[in-house]
Specification:
Layout lengths: L1 E4 H6 L1 H9 L4 E5 L2 E6 L37
Parallel strand pairs: 1-2
Antiparallel strand pairs: 2-3
Length: about 80
């Protein structure tokens, strides 16, 4: 992790962002006290949209009829 003083971070922000894009984490300090951490953003997860699977599943009219394979087990 690269440590940078706030004044240096302000002066070289574009360079620091380039390093962050390359995968490095930057710790920003003020008077040797950590105040912020700049790190690469992870991939954003897409949330499922309500109703997105509509009409993808069809249920037959006989879905609740007994199966012939189970006839020996039913009374």
């Amino acid at each position: 992790m690269h440590v940078v003083d706030f004044a240096q971070a302000e002066a070289h922000f574009a360079e620091l962002l380039g390093r962050v894009q390359a995968g490095e984490e930057i710790l920003v300090t003020r008077a040797d006290v950590p105040v912020a951490r700049i790190m690469p953003a992870g991939p954003q997860q897409k949330r499922p949209r309500f109703g997105a699977a509509k009409d993808l599943l069809r249920v037959g009219n006989d879905f609740d009829e007994p199966l012939a394979d189970f006839a020996p087990y039913t009374g």
